[in-house]
Every structure is written in structure tokens, then in C-alpha cells.
């Protein structure tokens, strides 16, 4: 068979005969989107996109119980403005590249998925969630005292509509599977041991469509949203650096990190 | 405590959460007259500038009606200067309630057409009493007039384009079950539980860090508000021109006449 490849934190299991690869996130313990991890994901995506054998990827997690905990708060706390800018640019890049990928992207969500983890899932074309009441998914930034960037908001609005997004974002809601399906954050909920096979079944439907027509249609649907960030990308980075550098925000993040430390011990 | 003639604002000084109940009492039907609009805006401003308050519940003190909406006597048989003054106040009501940094919950305890529906849609969350008479919707077309684009935008933001398109054209008033199903309201409860349901919901909203919630609300709503703000005067002129038309004045007079006859 074909050998797996990838990097320390991203394992790629290719199936070129079937035209897809499984991208397994393994940045224990919680697949935090650290700068290094983001870079590895982008490299893996680029490799798969430039290999004509691949038309689709399934993103999933290799860390039990978690899809991704989202942005790595240690990258956003107690660092200097240059680092914040570098980090945010990488987060933007993750969204832009996965959201606009010409590949079919399916998220096989096999764990809890807050904030940035939810964004990654929302960037894909289709979401399958394991039916485990612990596996909640949503953009819960407000609960940490921070605010989701406008392009997180846009992606959520495009998925669940303005009203649901408005309430979900303000309340920082994490939707358990039944609710996530009801409001449309995810497209399908299946028993936990069927998530990977369900994702692969769905792939077949997406790959049956003439590729160029599907890709152009995806661009038609998503480019306006992506352009809203692209036309002010640097300003968005500066906004982030300014916001995250604020004493009150640094204090809130430190308090949250402290709380997490205490939970562990 | 009463803050103004047309308004009764009850403040609840619970330790947590701090909120006020804004009870509309402009009998018989809480029409949004110029005076009433002014009093609502004054009350809102007072509550917004008092750091003790983080939320308001808007409800009605007139039985069976939340608000009948715009006061047609302000729009009929008056001069253009008055129409302009009135419309500016209607815009101000929407802008201020829609963008308020306070959590705004509508406890809808009566029928809520047109402007009444707009007021409810401007809030963060809507609880409706489960009474089949308490229909809610933007029914302007049935009166021969057209909902302004920012009424339409607020409805689209709430129920989506398709539902809004059909609802606006047909001037639909949704009874509770339908209103819940399409998403015009968020919750339907027995009539005697509307106020307590609204207060329960408040707790969830006030549990979120206030600054983060407010910035997020602005993120969600400012683009919609800006669409009016950037052409506010043009919107007033459009309204004055439209409402002054003979055909529209005739339709409004006929409707007011019909209402008079219904009463007697």
C-alpha cells in the first residue's frame, strides 16, 4: 500500500487509488493550534493540493476525545507584538487555505471542538460529528473574555444563518451533537465508531461531481467571504495585536491558563 | 417608579442580575406615536447611562397587545416637516434598541404587528405568550404600504431571506407555533409564564463577560445599522415622498376609517 507521510504533528494517510487522504491531527494533548502545528497543517495541505492524485481530504483527530481545542493561548499570552502578528497571520492562513481549498474537505469530528477547532471544522465542505454528548462544538470566545474575529463570524453565519450565529457567538455556545445538527453547525451525527466510515461514504457523493464545476462553484460561494479578509488582512493582524496586547485581555488569558493548569492538577 | 407618562419602568434591584422591566403603556394599543417614541428613547438612555443596569425586558402594560406599531395618525393628513420628524424618531428607535449595549429581551404578551414586530426583532431574544391571538409579523403590505429596507434587513437577519421574502410580501402575521417554527421568536411559553421566562433567559445572557458580549453584538449588528446610517437623510426623504402620495394618504385614511368603524 501507499506509505503514510506527514510531520510530527500531522499524520497523512493517503489512499490515492480512491483519490483522498486522511489528515490526522496529533498535537497532544488537545491539538492546540500552535504556530508549529499550523505550519505543519498548511504544509500537508499544500502537498496534497499539488498532487493531482488527491481530490479530497478527511480531517480528523488522533488525540482521544478532542478534535481541536483551537488557538494555542500560550502563543497569545506573554509574548511580544511581533510574535502575535506572526501567529495571527498563520491563523488567517489556516482559514483561507482550508476554506478555499479546491479539494473536497470533510471534517470527521471525533472529539470536542471549541473556538478555533470549530473554525477548522466550519472551513470544511461537510461535517460529520460523533454522537457523544461530550463532543460539543461552537465558537465560545466570549466565555474567555475575547471576541471572535469577523471572519470567524462570517463563516458561522454562512453555516447556520445570522440569527443562530448572533445568539451562539454572544453566549459563547458549545452545541452538543443533537443541537449542533438541529441548528446546522454539523451536517451529520453518527455513532462514534462510524465517524470515519461515514466521512468516507459522504466523500463519494462529492467526488462524483465533475471536479472543475464543483471547484468553480465552491469559489463562487466562498470567495466573497474570503475577500472580506483578504482586502484588509494587514489591518486585521494589527487589530489582533492591539487587542490581544491589552492589559485586560492579557490578564483574562493568564487567568484562564491558570484555571486550566489547576484543572489538570 | 414611573419615568414618564407613556412608560412605566420598573427597576429590579436584585443583587444579580441588574435589569429593568420597561412596560409600555400607551393605551389602547401602544401605538408608536412621536411622544411615545420619545419617552421610550429617554427611558432607554437613562438605563444605558446607569452602570447598574445590564439588561432590560420590554413588555406591554396594555392587555392583549404588545404594540400595534407605527401611529398612523402621525403619517396621515400632516405636513412634510412632521412626517420627517416622525420618521427620524422611528429610525432612532430602531437604531438605539438594535445596537444597545444592554441585553434586550422582549416579553411579548400581546399581538405585535408591523412596528411592534420591529421593536421585538430589535431585541436580543424574544419570548412570546402561547395565545393564538398573539400573532407577530411585518404586515405593512396589507395596509398598502411597504416596509422600509431596514425593517426588511432586521427580519432577514432573524428568519433568513426566503421566509422574509414570503412573509413581507404576504404581510404575514405568525401565530405563536408558526412564529417559533420560522424563528421570528425564540421561545413560546404559557401566557402566565412570559415574564418569568424572560427573566430566566436573562441570567444566561448576563453570565457572559459583558465587554466580550457587547463587542460581539456590535460585530453582528453594526453592518446592518450602517446601511441605514450612511443614507439616513435619504431614507427620511424617501419616506416623506412616499407617505405624501395621494394614493398612500387615501389608503391610510381608508384604513383609519375602517378601524374607527370596528371600534363602534
From TrEMBL, chain A:
Annotated keywords: Acetylation, Fatty acid metabolism, Isomerase, Lipid metabolism, Mitochondrion, Transit peptide
Top EC category: isomerase
Catalyzed reactions per annotation: (3Z)-hexenoyl-CoA = (2E)-hexenoyl-CoA; (3Z)-decenoyl-CoA = (2E)-decenoyl-CoA; (2E)-tetradecenoyl-CoA = (3Z)-tetradecenoyl-CoA; (3Z)-octenoyl-CoA = (2E)-octenoyl-CoA
GO annotation (BP), single: fatty acid beta-oxidation
Entry GO CC: mitochondrial matrix
Function summary: Key enzyme of fatty acid beta-oxidation. Able to isomerize both 3-cis (3Z) and 3-trans (3E) double bonds into the 2-trans (2E) form in a range of enoyl-CoA species, with a preference for (3Z)-enoyl-CoAs over (3E)-enoyl-CoAs. The catalytic efficiency of this enzyme is not affected by the fatty acyl chain length.
Assembly, per entry: Homotrimer.
Protein name: Enoyl-CoA delta isomerase 1, mitochondrial
Record lineage: Eukaryota, Metazoa, Chordata, Craniata, Vertebrata
Amino acid at each position: 500500500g501507499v506509505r503514510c507521510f506527514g510531520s510530527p504533528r500531522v499524520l497523512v494517510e493517503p489512499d490515492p487509488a480512491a483519490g483522498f487522504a486522511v489528515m490526522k491531527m496529533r498535537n497532544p494533548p488537545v491539538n492546540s493550534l500552535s504556530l508549529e502545528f499550523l505550519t505543519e497543517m498548511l504544509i500537508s495541505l499544500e502537498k496534497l493540493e499539488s498532487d493531482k492524485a488527491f481530490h479530497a481530504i478527511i480531517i480528523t483527530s488522533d488525540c482521544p476525545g478532542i478534535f481541536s481545542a483551537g488557538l494555542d493561548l500560550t502563543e497569545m499570552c506573554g509574548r511580544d507584538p511581533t510574535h502575535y502578528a506572526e501567529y495571527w497571520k498563520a491563523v488567517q492562513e489556516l482559514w483561507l487555505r482550508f476554506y478555499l481549498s479546491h479539494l473536497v474537505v470533510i471534517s470527521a469530528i471525533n472529539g470536542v471542538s471549541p473556538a478555533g477547532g470549530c473554525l477548522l471544522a466550519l472551513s470544511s465542505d461537510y461535517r460529520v460529528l460523533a454522537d457523544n454528548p461530550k463532543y460539543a462544538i461552537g465558537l465560545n470566545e466570549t466565555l474567555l473574555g475575547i471576541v471572535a474575529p469577523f471572519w470567524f463570524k462570517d463563516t458561522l453565519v454562512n453555516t447556520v444563518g445570522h440569527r443562530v450565529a448572533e445568539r451562539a457567538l454572544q453566549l459563547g455556545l458549545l452545541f452538543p451533537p443533537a443541537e449542533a445538527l438541529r441548528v446546522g453547525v454539523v451536517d451529520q451525527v453518527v455513532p462514534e465508531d462510524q465517524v470515519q466510515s461515514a466521512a468516507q461514504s459522504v466523500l463519494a457523493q462529492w467526488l462524483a461531481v465533475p471536479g472543475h464545476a464543483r471547484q468553480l462553484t465552491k469559489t463562487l460561494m466562498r470567495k466573497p467571504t474570503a475577500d472580506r479578509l483578504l482586502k484588509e488582512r494587514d489591518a486585521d493582524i494589527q487589530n489582533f495585536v492591539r487587542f490581544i496586547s491589552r492589559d485586560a485581555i492579557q490578564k483574562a488569558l493568564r487567568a484562564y491558563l491558570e484555571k486550566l493548569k489547576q484543572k489538570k492538577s
